[in-house]
Amino acid sequence: MARRVARKKQVNLADQAAREIRIRLSRWGCTNRPFFHVVVADSKAPRDGRHYEQVGAYDPMPNEHGEKLVSLNHNRIKHWLVSGATPTTAVAQLLGLAGLLPVHPTSYTDARKRRKLLAEGPVANGNKTLESNGDDNAVS
Question: What value does the mean pLDDT of the chain take?
Fold first, then answer.
């Protein structure tokens, strides 16, 4: 009987380069009540699947003061950015507003669109804007 010799796996550099580490959002929470963890994960891993580390949290639903809450571990995010991790667009926007990265260009375009909608006021054809929610006495 011939003995099988264990061979070392050869590292394929193309596969290793394709595996990119990303800082992205992982969805948690209930239906119609999303909550996101900011995680460091492999780009090939599922959105809510395996990750290396959780580095923050984001609650997109406004609280009673109209604030969307974000909690970030600045030191660990800086560590992963220096290590070569790249943030997704949504996380880059959050990090830009938090001061860890330059402000993302889409943050400016989104703000410009919202200012334009608020300046126009309620639209005559009945479409809702950010300001109008169908109740004239409600404060948004």
Answer: 79
